[in-house]
Amino acid sequence: MSNNLLKGKKGIIFGALDEKSIAWKTAQKCFEAGAQIVLTNAPVALRMGEINKLAEQCGNAPVIGADVTNMDDLKNLFEKSIEHFGGKIDFILHSIGMSLNVRKGKHYTEMNYEWNQKTLDISAMSLHKVLRTAWDMDALNEGASVVALTYIAAQRVFPDYNEMADAKSLLESVTRMFGYYYGVKKKVRVNTISQSPTRTTAGSGVKGFDGFINYAEKMSPLGNASGEDCANYCVVMFSDLTRMVTMQNLFHDGGFSFTGVTQAVIEQMEK
Fold it and tell me: Which of 63, 108, 132, 179 could form a disulfide with 190 if both were Cys (CB 3.0 to 4.6 A apart)?
């Protein structure tokens, strides 16, 4: 049932791949909350055809392909979105991450640096390019909200997370830096949400991912936050209820980030 928290707002959702993805769930929740949305993903992802199902569920939302590393693609995305909405944008979800070294099984200590540059460009600098395009085009409304999804590996070592840890650290830095300039210019908020490990198609490609999830579940007083929980949090961040929150890395992980150890973990270690 809609709470109309986003009634009248218009937003772009990057990265909805399939029903497992947080971006997919966020699009659904935003639409339920009264928002109009545009869906976008890389051309290769669009060829899978899954996103068209989501578009139908969200009021036949437009699906506009865009390579997030290509400034011309991003300009076209914003131009078509503004034309569709009949006005500027109120919120953006950046749910984008891809690691070539992880995908190709390269250990962190044996990194292929050409692949690494592509990983950083797609997973982190793409946020800068999205914000830069919106900045240059004056595409965001006063007080708009931008959220990018991250993970606690930006602050702590999770060995198999590999180069994505570096990418998330860079993503969070871009959030703070661009968040400052956009806040001064137009009161636009830019934040990251550091989500629990979540069983998405992309996340499941990380070596030892089941171990990540099981450990985090035992280490979190509230348990792991689901993708749907994260989607609800995104709706709140896009709403006017959080208009003074910016440049923050917001942990949405059931308490994992501030828990030293739990009884469940101690008992597991004593077995």
Answer: 179
- Quote the CA–CA distance of 114 and 243 in Å, as a whole number: 39
The string of DSSP codes covering 18-78 is: STTSHHHHHHHHHHHTT-EEEEE--HHHHTT-THHHHHHHTTS--B----TT-HHHHHHHH
Nearest 5°: the CA angle 218, 222, 223 is: 40
Tokens 């937003």: give the residue.
11
Report which of residues 162 and 206 the model is more confident about.
162
Residues 105-123 as b or e (16 or more Cβ within 10 Å = b): ebebeebeeebbebbbbbb
The helix or strand, by DSSP H or E, that contains position 159, with its residue range, turns out to be: none
pLDDT for position 68: 97
DSSP letter at 244 equals T
pLDDT tens-digit series, residues 75-112: 999 999 999 999 999 999 999 999 999 999 999 999 99
Other C-beta atoms lying within 10 Å of the C-beta of residue 65: 17
pLDDT at 142 over 90: yes
Phi, psi for residue 201 in degrees, rounded to 5: -60, -40
Q: Which fold has domain 10-270?
A: Rossmann fold (3.40.50)
Count each helix (H run) and each strand (E run) in the chain, helices first.
11, 6
Q: Domain segments of the chain: what residues?
A: 10-270
For residues 69, 73, 75 and 77, what is the CA-based torsion angle, rounded to 10 degrees? Answer: -110
Q: Is 128 left (phi over 0), alpha (psi -120 to 50) or beta?
A: alpha
